[in-house]
Amino acid sequence: MAAQSAPKVVLKSTTKMSLNERFTNMLKNKQPMPVTIRASMQQQQQLASARNRRLAQQMESRPSVQAALKLKQVGV
Question: From which domain of life does this come (predicted)?
Fold first, then answer.
């Protein structure tokens, strides 16, 4: 039984720059995040925090959660 190997495929390079060089250049040319985007992100985080606080308040008022908290206080 002679094992036949598949012919080797050789691809010609389509670029003169290595992958490492590409990523190095990308990191060098990376611009800092503008202040407006930072402010927008902070505003979104504050909005999310407010929503989470409201959700926590809603959860506290649910009867099932109140019962669970009472059980926890009793030490069960």
Answer: Eukaryota
Extents of the domains making up the chain: 35-74
How many residues can be counted in the chain? 76
Cα–Cα distance measured from residue 70 to residue 62, given in angstroms and rounded to the nearest whole number: 12
SS3 36: helix
Average pLDDT per consecutive 10 residues, the chain (76 residues; last block may be shorter):
73 81 91 80 94 94 90 80
> pTM to 2 decimals?
0.42
Query: What single string gives the DSSP state of each residue in 6-23?
Result: PPPP-PPP--SS-HHHHH
For residue 65, count other CB atoms closer than 10 A to its CB. Answer: 13
